Amino acid sequence: MVKFLLVSVVVVSLISLVVASCSNNDQKTSTLDSGVAITYTVWGRKECPNNSSLVYSGSVGGSYYAHSGAAADYLCEYDSYFIPNADGHDVPCAVCRRKRVSTVLMIPGKDTCYQGWNIEYYGYLNAHDYRFSAAASYVCMHVHPEFRRGGRHNYEGKLFHPVIGSCGSLPCPPYVNGYPLTCVVCSK
């Protein structure tokens, strides 16, 4: 409860600061957004797009795919080389920081951003196979994924499977039955 109270006090303070700076007629521009930045993860690559800086790169990890009740999220684990993908190689990831934007959004089913938004990267929507017991989040795997040559043992940790479109649950067109869904990561 205390954490929520502290956050709300900070938000109220920031709102007061924004209102005060907006009501000042002598000040034409606000410098509040100069320090604004967001972070996001590029799945399947070890580098960030040109407009972003690398916070760290690592390997994808997560819960065992068949454990019921396992954590749903994929993790970008710093300097971790022990959870290989299905063909025995590690999937890299990069945690990126983008300055002067306040929002990052992954849009499933598209490979371009809406007008006024910036593309960070695009690729294919991935999650666990529907037959697996463990839950998984949807992530946008880079269109040109890299793989780290790693250990020979397949631990069957957090696995990536493309999300395939199915007409009936999705409108066709624009979707194509039996075809992997695209995705794009956008910022603004």
Write a concise synopsis of the structure shown.
It contains one helix and nine strands; from the N terminus they run αβββββββββ. The protein has one helix at 2-23, and strands at 37-43, 53-61, 75-78, 92-99, 104-108, 118-127, 139-142, 161-162, 182-187.
Question: Can you describe this structure?
Answer:
With 188 residues, the chain is of the alpha+beta class. The chain contains 1 helix and 9 strands. It has one helix at residues 2-23; strands at residues 37-43, 53-61, 75-78, 92-99, 104-108, 118-127, 139-142, 161-162, 182-187. Strands 5, 6, 7, 8 and 9 form a 5-stranded antiparallel sheet that branches. Strands 1-4-2-3 form a 4-stranded antiparallel sheet, with no helix packed on it. The two termini are 32 Å apart. The model is unreliable at 1-33 and 80-86 (pLDDT under 50). This is Short-chain collagen C4-like. Keywords: Signal. It comes from Mytilus edulis (Blue mussel). Residues 1-20 form the signal peptide.
Structure keywords:
188 residues; alpha+beta; five-stranded antiparallel beta sheet; four-stranded antiparallel beta sheet; 1 helix; globular; disordered N terminus
Total strands: the figure is 9
Provide the residue-averaged pLDDT: 74
Poorly predicted regions are 1-33, 80-86
What's the total helix number?
A: 1
Distance between the termini: 32 Å
SSE pattern, N- to C-terminal? HEEEEEEEEE
Principal-axes shape call: globular
| Strand fraction | 25-35%
Signal peptide: 1-20
GO cellular component, one term: extracellular space
InterPro entries: Ca-dependent_lectin
Protein name: Short-chain collagen C4-like
